[in-house]
Amino acid sequence: MKYLLALLISTAPFLIKAQPSHDNFDILLKKHVNTQGGVNYKAFKSDEQKLNTYLDVMKQNSPANSWNDNEKLTYWINVYNALTIQLILKYYPVKSIKDIGSSIQIPYVNTPWDIKCFEIDDEELSLNNIEHGIIRKDFEEPRIHFALVCAAVSCPKLLNEAYEASRLDAQLTAQTKSFLANTSKNKISTDRLELSKIFNWYGGDFRKNGTLVDFLNQYTTVEIDKKAKTSFMDYDWALNEQ
If you average pLDDT over residues 106-118, what whole number do you get? Predict the structure, then answer.
């Protein structure tokens, strides 16, 4: 018995840490988000505690080294989107996530994306910390820009289901194609591109393995010419509300 206990203690650091379930977040998204990505925040308020409970579970189950990249990335995408919804619900009703900035009374915090809102492994993280300090830093995956949603009309649509590690690649591809095909956010032809400002703000992320056109041509039905003229559309920060 003593030998078995000693063996368990000695091997504890190498035990595989189970992934937390995203099923409860999935249920909430299916209930309050439509297929166009519109969120029924008014109804979502009644389930605010369930969302908070889901995030509490995530705080207690940080990604482990034993997880693969898809498992880690799935965790952070779901957490980011859940935190964004939580932020809107906290200040709801608002017309834009940017309106929350004027309500912040925290020293050195100027935008809603700078609010420390997620304590994990004894560290307080903001949405900016998660997006730029973890997701963009640790994962060379430009399609995350169509999965992370900032609660605005011009953002990619919020998927009405949680991301799953087993089909993350398919979900990211579908989100990318859907965003590019939405003519209210991107207008794409062979010789002219009117693109979302996401492609301007994060241009470098889409050029790590070629040009921007090379990236776009993987996910559009139009074959874009390499010399296509490019401009960027205005960004609508109105709330992505149903």
Answer: 84
